[in-house]
Amino acid sequence: MFTSSEAQLSLHRFLRGTEDITVQCPKCGHVYQDRFRGSVNLALDDFDEEYLDQCSSATCPECQHKVSLDVLVVEDGVFKFEAQN
Whole-model pTM? Predict the structure, then answer.
């Protein structure tokens, strides 16, 4: 479990270098807000796997479907999952 200061540091690291995005769930169609980090330099910060997963994926709050943000496309300001054949 994190101490209060560790939790604050973790939140600060997550928010630094991220941007708010709007995501449309490819499973249920729900549109929700999330955060996206375009790049992570592991040479500068020692991020754990959980943080890297949070930076590179979004989970729908309605149906819990998880998508990788590197396979989303932005269309009219909305990140949309592009179905792969």
Answer: 0.63
